[in-house]
Amino acid sequence: MKFATASIIFLGIAVGAGGPAAVQDDKAAILDVIERQAATFWSKDFAAWSDTWVHADYVRRVGWSPNGGVISIEGWDAIGGAMKKTMAENPTPNPTPAKLVRDHVNVRVYKDVAWVTFDQHGVDTGDTRFDMPGLSHETRILERHGGKWKLAYVGYVLADNRPPR
């Protein structure tokens, strides 16, 4: 009887979690959000970029680059407000997304929360405010809201790819 009860409980957990096919569907949806966030960032489409984010006080964007130093912005109002202003001041779309390469992608899904790490290789297009040339190490934390995956945390560290002085 213990075996039967344990099997039913395990089956209930596996079905409740959606099984391997549901996890693969989630992974595909999560990677799509990451791709859309990047594409809309560089195309400077604030409305579409905004749609990839959770709009809450606890979201955060943290990064480091050789040109910009450390950045840490907390809360949707601050993140969205700063990005809307930056995109308005630099409205020309940047072709970077067509040239991005991501590798070492790791996706972990836990019901309605997921985290992703990857390396991203960007190119220098001459857009000093939006370029992220060279290698960057990236982290994303996403939450499922209303059946859709949204970003709650974006982190990046650009390798210092500048030539030595």
Secondary-structure blueprint:
Layout: H1 2-17, H2 19-43, H3 46-50, E1 60-65, E2 69-74, H4 76-89, E3 101-110, E4 113-122, E5 134-145, E6 148-158
Parallel strand pairs: 1-6
Antiparallel strand pairs: 1-2, 3-4, 4-5, 5-6
Question: What does the model show?
Answer:
There is one protein chain. With 165 residues, the protein is of the alpha+beta class. The protein has a single domain, classed as Nuclear Transport Factor 2, Chain: A. The protein contains four helices and six strands; from the N terminus they run αααββαββββ. It has a six-stranded mixed beta sheet. Strand 3 and strand 4 (113-122) form a beta hairpin. The longest helix is centred in the N-terminal third of the chain and has 25 residues, at 19-43. It is globular and about 45 Å long. The model is unreliable at 1-16 (pLDDT under 50).
Helix share of residues?
25-40%
Largest sheet, strands/sense/barrel: 6 strands, mixed
Q: What's the domain count?
A: 1
Instruction: Work out the strand percent.
Output: 25-35%
Number of DSSP E strands: 6
What is the SS-derived class? Answer: alpha+beta
By CATH reckoning, the class would read Alpha Beta
Shape: globular
**Average pLDDT figure:** 85
**CATH topology descriptor:** Nuclear Transport Factor 2, Chain: A
Question: What's the total helix number?
Answer: 4
